[in-house]
Design brief:
The protein is α/β, with parallel strands linked by helices. The protein has twelve helices and 13 strands. The strands form three sheets. Strands 6-5-4-7-8 form a five-stranded mixed sheet, with helices on both faces. A five-stranded mixed sheet has the order 11-10-9-12-13, with helices on both faces. Strands 1-3-2 form a three-stranded antiparallel sheet. The protein is globular, with a radius of gyration of 22 Å.
Length: about 400
């Protein structure tokens, strides 16, 4: 997926970087006046004008003329084709919303932190309002929304689209998520476990392309996994497959949010890791811990390596049951790269049959967040099939 890029420091690479700044600004803000692009990117008016002309000729952006404070102004937005799909990606502590066109090019993106005690039902209302604002921002109508994927950090019943395990997301258990989001956004809705979406993205265009049995582990505040068998997501009839975060590591361990004791999440989940740092200033969120590990903080690196060891024990059990070709480790913790991965591999070698000799344990191969890419892919898939359904019923 990587484009050939110019050598760093060259004129061409500077031009490329400047172009990217303009595309990023339009992705974040939606439609902008050319003069606003100058303010936001910090580039000169002449540079912005040149790049806008180039990108417009290449079909990447489109320009319209409007007026601004009584003066003629050029309005710039990213070009989109054939409607838009949306991903609403809930993780335990943040909501990311992405709008993309049918080529899966992101046209708008928004990131909202969530409080530790947030209620998901209220957040769903807010998410629907934000999607409306973002469509406005890129000059699109609600009718252009082809489909929406709601990605959640807990298992989903594939039959009903409701959460498969009660108690994991306060406020959401009794909700018909498909109907309630559809009523707000008037588009087909897919509800899916984020880890399943990650597995889908990795198997379509990431680190698990060609794998017969692929597993994607999302390790963050919560820990879950998605499984793809011969290219098809395997959720189990009730959606409870892949719940690696709730594999028992210590029968006498701490009580888990699922009600069991000593689950993997109670020793390697983000909350458990943060508990190790209680009383240490500066580390209150998982992102603080990861930043500290990346800056070489010994305690943070130790905590993440230990989490990798526990994760590896659970992955070894999964490997003994499923015999995967590849296990992709994603989620916030995977940002620490080999600090986590090396320790997962070491534990798997010790605990899996035959050391799981042919098993690859790797980081994500998807550009961007694999769970969001998977959500956009799933939305596109459902919009294709609903379009095919409309064509069939019209014929
Ligand atoms: Zn549990």
């Amino acid at each position: 997926m990587a484009r050939p890029s110019a050598p760093p420091g060259s004129q061409a690479s500077l031009r490329e970087a400047n172009r990217q700044r303009i595309v990023d600004a339009l992705t974040t803000h939606g439609s902008l006046a050319q003069i606003e692009l100058v303010d936001i990117t910090g580039l000169s008016a002449a540079t912005v004008s040149n790049i806008v002309r180039e990108l417009s000729a290449a079909g990447v952006i489109s320009t319209t003329f409007g007026s601004r404070s009584g003066r003629r102004a050029v309005q710039v937005s990213l070009t989109r084709q054939d409607g838009l799909v949306a991903a609403l990606h809930f993780s335990s502590r943040s909501l990311t919303i992405v709008l993309a066109d049918s080529a899966l090019t992101t046209v708008a993106e928004k990131h909202v932190p969530l409080a530790a005690d947030h209620r998901y039902d209220r957040e769903l209302d807010r998410a629907a309002l934000l999607v409306g604002d973002m469509l406005d921002g890129v000059g699109a109508e609600l009718g252009e929304l082809l489909a929406v994927t709601l990605s959640v950090p807990v298992p989903v019943d594939p039959e009903t689209g409701r959460l498969a395990v009660p108690g994991l997301m306060p406020g959401w258990d009794a909700v018909d998520l498909v109907a309630s989001l559809r009523a707000r956004l008037d588009a087909p809705v897919v509800v899916e476990h984020g880890a399943t979406l990650g597995a889908l993205a990795e198997s379509r265009g990431g680190a698990a392309v060609g794998a017969r049995v692929a597993m994607y582990v999302a390790a963050g505040y919560s820990i879950g996994s998605g499984i793809v068998l011969d290219g098809v997501p395997f959720r189990g009839p009730r959606g409870r497959a892949g719940q690696i975060g709730h594999v028992t590591l210590d029968e006498n361990g701490a009580i888990c949010r699922c009600g069991n004791r000593g689950c993997l999440e109670t020793v390697a989940g983000g909350r458990a890791l943060l508990d190790l740092f209680s009383g240490i200033p500066g580390i209150t969120r998982l992102s603080d811990l990861i930043a500290d590990a990346e800056a070489g903080g010994a305690g943070a690196r130790r905590a993440i390596a230990d989490a990798g060891k526990h994760l590896g024990v659970a992955v070894a059990s999964a490997a003994n049951l499923l015999d995967p070709d590849v296990v992709v480790i994603g989620g916030e913790l995977a940002r620490t790269g080999e600090t986590l991965l090396a320790s997962v591999r070491h534990a798997v070698e010790r605990a899996a049959l035959d050391g799981a000799r042919d098993l690859q344990i790797v980081g994500s191969g998807v550009a961007g967040d694999p769970e969001i890419t998977g959500a956009l892919l799933a939305a596109l898939q459902v919009s294709d099939s609903s379009a095919a359904g409309r064509a069939l019923s019209a014929g």
